[in-house]
Amino acid sequence: MLLRRAIAHIVATRINGTNVVERISSNVRMFSNVTTSELKNDSNLDKPEFPGSKSQFTTELKFLDPTTYDTIPTFRVLDKSGQHVSESYADQLDLNLALRFYKEMIKLNQMDAILYEAQRQGRISFYMTSYGEEATHFGPAAALKDDDLVFGQYREPGVLMWRGFTIEQFVNQCFGNIFDTGKGRQMPIHYGSRELNYMTIKSTLTSQMLHAVGSAYAFRMKGKDQVTLCYFGDGAASEGDAHAAFNFASVLNCPVIFLCRNNGYAISTPVHEQYQGDGIAARGPALGIPTIRVDGNDVFACYFAVQEARKICMMEGRPVLIEAMTYRIGHHSTSDDSSAYRSVDEIRTYGEKEHPRNRIELLLRRNNMFDEQEHKKYKEDIRKEIINVVFQQEKHNKPAIKELFTDVYDQMSRIQEEQFQELNEHLKTYRKHYPKNFKDF
């Protein structure tokens, strides 16, 4: 304490000219005159006062062993049979919301099945399904406000679907036609919507986490009643940008919700080869971030967790980390064959016993809200609608070649104009080697 007073005296003293050394020396002499008995009587000397940590002194030489810590529990509301496991949330289970969750999952599953086959038929170039991870889409989407900003990684189309992105818009983006809001510049599944507050997907893994923190910081600076929800995967958590994002969000008190979809695999790398310790959630407390682990196959667990996380962000001005434990039933993408690194039995087990849609269906059946014929018809109607949309939207031309150069600057630069003319000449000469369905040159 006396040392701190001496230092404070030095800082408070106006230092100028040639008497700097004299003043510092005077303060040092003042501290050196403190007796041992005075130091012993200062009760705060037994507490560490290092600027880098808050702890207590100990005489025990002991390293912390991560294997001796209790693991972070997994919060859930519904078990695999669709039965609520906590009376605390029994009265909060909105069955009408559950019904909508179920129907949206059906729609997403049907869209995934049809567009996956469209890629296999050569109609589109690429696709990624969301089988098994639907609860991590719709639960959080329902818990947010419409103007909350969402940064997806690439496997979260359900959030957009919940907010009103139409089947036509999904299909247009995958075909990259003239109605694609991205003007055909992105590969399939890189959706985005300014109107629905959903940032366009980026192929550069984990870059969205830093952008999300920046947007949340802007909300905080402007005093906005908005939060940012940022998705990332267990593999993305190993990227350097993830660690930087966590730390910046914590230090700057950004209202951002980090939601990790821990689906067991980073493409082909299983989690036991990805990290040691108690998963991604264990990183939150170390960086001063309120953290929870949830059952990512329980849509209501995801819903309540994000709902509470939003309150923490707004009321306490802090970031939140949610680790949603789930399983990727489908292949990583149409470029992947997951049977090369996991067994068919493993996939079948998770598909039959852990699928989020099955859990919601069982909940609805328990409450006499599931009509077999009605849902069968709904599934058939949605499938027909999506197939019809695919047939219609694939007929449209691709955007004009000039769109390759627009939207970089307010107006095309001289160099861009020259490049555009060079490309035009090239296409006129070699047109037969290029697709014929561009709108124009």
- Arrangement of strands in the largest sheet: 1-8-9-5-4-2-3
Query: How many DSSP H or I helices?
Result: 17
Total domain count = 3
Count of individual beta strands: 9
Task: Describe the structure in your own words.
The protein has 441 residues and is of the alpha/beta class. The protein folds into three domains: 2-62, no CATH class; 74-393, Rossmann fold (3-Layer(aba) Sandwich), CATH 3.40.50.970; 401-433. Helices cover 45% and strands 8% of the residues. The protein has helices at 2-12, 20-32, 36-40, 87-90, 95-120, 135-143, 157-163, 167-175, 207-222, 240-251, 271-274, 283-286, 299-316, 344-353, 356-366, 372-393, 414-430; strands at 74-75, 149-151, 198-199, 228-233, 256-262, 265-266, 269-270, 291-295, 320-325. It has a seven-stranded parallel β-sheet with strand order 1-8-9-5-4-2-3, with helices on both faces. A two-stranded antiparallel ribbon has the order 6-7. Helix 13 links the parallel strand 8 and strand 9 (320-325). Helix 9 packs parallel to helix 10 (240-251). It is globular and about 80 Å long. The chain starts with a helix and ends in an 11-residue tail after the last helix. The model is unreliable at 13-18 (pLDDT under 50). This is 2-oxoisovalerate dehydrogenase subunit alpha. InterPro entries: Alpha-ketoacid_DH_E1_comp, DH_E1, THDP-binding. Keywords: Metal-binding, Mitochondrion, Oxidoreductase, Potassium, Thiamine pyrophosphate, Transit peptide.
Quick recap:
This is 2-oxoisovalerate dehydrogenase subunit alpha. With 441 residues, this protein is α/β, with parallel strands linked by helices.
